[in-house]
Prior knowledge:
This protein is of the alpha+beta class. Helix content is 33%, strand content 35%. The chain is built from 3 helices and 8 strands. The protein is elongated, with a radius of gyration of 19 Å. Residues 11-15 and 18-27 have low confidence and may be disordered.
Amino acid sequence: MKNILRSLFFVFGLLMMAYCAQTNEASQNISRKWMLVQFQDFSKDFLMKKGVNLDLSTKDQYGANMGCNRMFMKADFKPDGTVIFSQVGSTMMYCEDAMKLEDSFGKSLPAMTRYKIDGHFLTLTSKDGSTMKFVAADWD
């Protein structure tokens, strides 16, 4: 009986360590600055020229820059690949060439419910299948 209990505790311990390692790996990979490279009908050149990014390197409040205004939001990234964005807000400067992008991004971000990290790429996906694709800013 003691051997069975030891075995169960051992297996339980291994499962807990694997879960914690997966959680830490996901949070470490997500905690960086991401450059937006694919979103709706905006060209990659336009997004790169504007320096559009999502900054997930801080703990409590995340940020984004759409080329003119700074955005801020909270997000909860779960180990199962789900994400919840909330409290999305923005500064309110007018920049003619960036307003469509900022408006679209601000409306789309809270609808993103899944995330996937594949190498140096982060993809956010909504329930209707629309996506935002990012590349890690620190990737050469």
